[in-house]
Design a protein that fits this description.
Blueprint lengths: L7 E2 L27 H15 L15 H6 L3 E7 L3 H4 L14 E12 L2 E12 L2 E9 L5 H10 L9 E4 L5 H11 L16 E4 L3 H7 L2 H13 L5 E11 L2 E10 L1
Parallel strand pairs: 5-6
Antiparallel strand pairs: 1-5, 2-3, 3-4, 4-5, 6-9, 7-8, 8-9
Helix pairs in contact: 1-6, 1-7, 4-7
């Protein structure tokens, strides 16, 4: 894998992801049949990487990074336990997730780096509970990808086979926000920000909106998490939920065994 140049950051507990591996299998020109153009086609390609073993040129390899590896390589690691975060309480699915102040493990890793003659700090903050990864506050200048570190954090406490949901909260990622605000919601007669409960939407596997969201930077990151954790043809993103809480975009990716 070679990185797309750019910063991965979830700034001030917002989700702003620019860190994805580069691939050469996307189309040069969106087809006329794709309702949402290039994003939809890129999402379809990644969905097929997950589910169809005959599709060539999948660049994502198995990930074996551990937190012990990060500490050995000079990353600072801290952790604490907190209650279920408010931003996911607005999701009905959150009622099925653990509650209580010993249930959610906030894990943080940080490491200095020097690029372009300036000092920077790589940092990855993720909340972990049994069944869910909740991405919080992340900057990446170099080093492992978010998907690799998130997998290492989850596997520190639970078998990867128990994962059900990946949340991105309080999104500040321009690519993903644009897809939702300017394309997916207007394409379904909705406005952004939405009014009331009408804004909570679930997009199912195979729908154009599902493929469009899987083709965003955040959607791709979830695909890479699954490709790194499981053999191809065994797990998929079943659906994507989008909604607004406190004027911010929230997303949930439901992952499951095929």
């Amino acid at each position: 894998m070679s990185p797309v140049q750019g910063l991965l950051s979830f700034q001030h507990d917002t989700t702003h992801l620019q860190d994805i591996p580069r691939d050469t299998s996307t189309t040069t020109h969106p087809s006329d049949t794709a309702k949402y153009g290039r994003r939809q086609e890129e999402g379809t390609i990644r969905q097929r990487w997950l589910t169809d073993l005959t599709i060539p040129n999948c660049p994502i390899q198995s990930a074996h990074l551990t937190l012990a590896d990060l500490v050995h390589d000079g990353w600072d690691y801290t952790k604490e336990t907190i209650d279920q975060p408010q931003e996911i309480k607005s999701d009905p699915i959150s009622a099925t997730l653990p509650h209580g102040n010993t249930r959610y493990r906030m894990q943080r890793v940080k490491k200095m780096c020097r690029l372009g003659g300036a000092d920077h700090v790589n940092k990855h903050f993720n909340l972990i509970c049994r069944g869910a990864i909740i991405a919080k506050n992340i900057y990446r200048f170099d080093g492992p990808y978010w998907s690799q570190i998130a997998q290492a954090m989850y596997e520190r406490h639970f078998p990867m086979e128990t994962i059900q949901y990946v949340y991105f909260t309080n999104l500040d990622n321009a690519d993903t926000i644009t897809a939702v605000r300017d394309h997916v919601y207007p394409g379904n007669g909705l406005t952004w920000p939405p009014v009331g409960d009408a804004g909570f939407k679930t997009w199912e596997f195979g729908e154009p909106e599902y493929s469009c969201l899987l083709g965003t930077r955040l959607g791709k990151a979830v695909v890479y998490l699954l490709l790194g954790a499981f053999p191809r043809g065994t797990w998929c993103v079943a659906r994507v939920a989008t909604w607004c809480w406190d004027s911010e975009l929230q997303m949930r990716f439901d992952v499951e065994e095929i």
